[in-house]
Design a protein that fits this description.
Helices cover 39% and strands 20% of the residues. By secondary structure, the protein is α/β, with parallel strands linked by helices. The protein has one domain: Nucleotidyltransferase, domain 5 (2-Layer Sandwich), CATH 3.30.420.
Length: 134
């Protein structure tokens, strides 16, 4: 009788470990092109939220990458420079690698610093790869 209980306990423990491993693998991982910031701003010039289909929510409107880029250019040209941008999880949308990549391109082209508050509420700086192309 004691052996049966021990076997059940061992099977449950192994099942729990397997489920924990699967959960860790399935987590939405926003690691591409990001790292922990050494210093982060206390406030940001622009905060955008994630929206569906790789788009962004800006001041209540859904915008694509090009529209966000144009908005930042407009602000820069009109005396409201955007030097720091924060990307946060939207109300219904998690941060995706597509959004991180889009914001990285904007930050690279417009010489801004981009940060992301990932799906685990950790602040990360988006690494800008300047490959010389425009």
């Amino acid at each position: 009788m004691q052996t049966i209980r021990w076997n059940k306990f061992l099977k449950l423990a192994l099942l729990a470990l397997l489920l924990a491993a699967l959960a860790a693998c399935a987590r939405d991982n926003i690691k591409e092109n990001t790292s922990e910031p050494t210093v982060s701003p206390t406030q940001y010039d622009l905060t955008v939220l994630c929206d569906k289909d790789g788009q962004f929510e800006l001041e209540g409107a859904t915008v694509d990458v090009q529209t966000l880029r144009d908005h930042i250019r407009y602000r820069n040209e009109n005396g409201q420079p955007v030097r720091t941008i924060l990307l946060k999880r939207g109300e219904k949308q998690k941060v995706t690698n597509q959004q991180v990549a889009g914001l990285a391109g904007i930050a690279r082209d417009l010489k801004a610093e981009a940060y992301v508050l990932d799906n685990d509420d950790r602040l990360k700086v988006i690494q800008i790869a300047d490959d010389g192309k425009k």
